[in-house]
Amino acid sequence: MKTHNLSKIYNGKIKAVDDLNIEIGDGEIYGLLGPNGAGKTTTINMLTTRISCTKGTAIVAGYNIRKDSLMVRKTIGVVPQDLTADEDLTGRENLVMVSQFYDVPKEEYEERIPKLLELVDMTEAANRYVRTYSGGMRKRLELIVGLVHNPKILFLDEPTLGLDIQTRTQMWDYVRQIQKEMDVTIILTSHYLEEIDALADRVSIIDHGKVLVTGSPAELKSSLNGDIVTITFKEKEEAEKMKTIPGVIDTSDSGINTVRIKVANSDDSLPDIINFISSNKLSTMKLTVQKPTLDEVFLEYTGKDIRKEDPEDARKMMMNMRRLRR
């Protein structure tokens, strides 16, 4: 899959996506990260032909999204963050229904559905009504609903939103297994950076509709060139004083009375930092040391914390969680 100057402009002036150029290899798990309003949802909507692009184009599963939107839809699978399965049908009936929507021949879906159910450990629950499923079971069903027509590309939009960490980790195993056994390209968006870190072969961080950086999670973390020491003081002036410490790569504010210090190696630099605090008689409230993570990469390139979601995101998450618990 490849985009070429893909752009979306609303009302003639608001650039939601601005000349986006990314290339995703066959069989790759590709993560899209960005703060709220970065353009990743708009990008996905264009790639899945839910909305038209203003300029540029993309080739998805071998088809041009401008000229061959119907073929694009036939060759991709989409798993939205909202629950879409009919609760008054069984899991198997939902899979059959969606297969028929895609005009999958009966002999094909009768052979494929049992394999998909087995792939996510849902065989025993297949003939139960969806309304009796747990949250994790519903998410697993949604996952294979997107695969009944054997797509070449699978879009996963927040596939584990609202799930507890144990269930989320199990879902990661299912995603890996699906990619391995079906050789499908997976494009993943998630607010859980550990999810992107665990699953994605490569990641693009997007902000203001542009790609800021692309690479494997390991490459992005190593690009920070250092560890992060975060210190909270009793007074704001004390945090400002830490910005004068010699021998560090960089210092920056990280909240009220808190300073974020980048060092080449925290094991070597921490004694000097502690000596500086002691010699200047600063009142330390909290000190943490963090090796490079995708959280730090995200903060470095966007200046924002992905975990600080806006009220609308929080509302959607709570609604999903309530539905999952029914």
TrEMBL record:
Q: What name does the UniProt record give this protein?
A: DrugE1 family ABC transporter ATPase
Identify the Gene3D superfamilies for this entry.
P-loop containing nucleotide triphosphate hydrolases
Taxon lineage = Archaea, Methanobacteriati, Thermoplasmatota, Thermoplasmata, Thermoplasmatales
What are its GO cellular component terms?
plasma membrane
User: Can you supply a Gene Ontology BP term from the record?
Assistant: doxorubicin transport
The record's similarity note reads: Belongs to the ABC transporter superfamily. Drug exporter-1 (DrugE1) (TC 3.A.1.105) family.
* Residues of the ABC transporter domain: 1-233
Membrane protein topology class: Peripheral membrane protein
GO MF annotation list: ATP binding; ATP hydrolysis activity
Q: Which domain of life does the protein's organism represent? A: Archaea
Compartments where found: Cell membrane
**Which keywords does this Swiss-Prot/TrEMBL entry list?**
ATP-binding, Nucleotide-binding, Transport
Q: Which Pfam families match?
A: ABC_tran (PF00005), DrrA1-3_C (PF13732)
Q: Which InterPro entries match?
A: AAA+_ATPase, ABC_transporter-like_ATP-bd, ABC_transporter-like_CS, DrrA, DrrA1/2-like_C, P-loop_NTPase
Where it mainly occurs, coarsely classed, is membrane
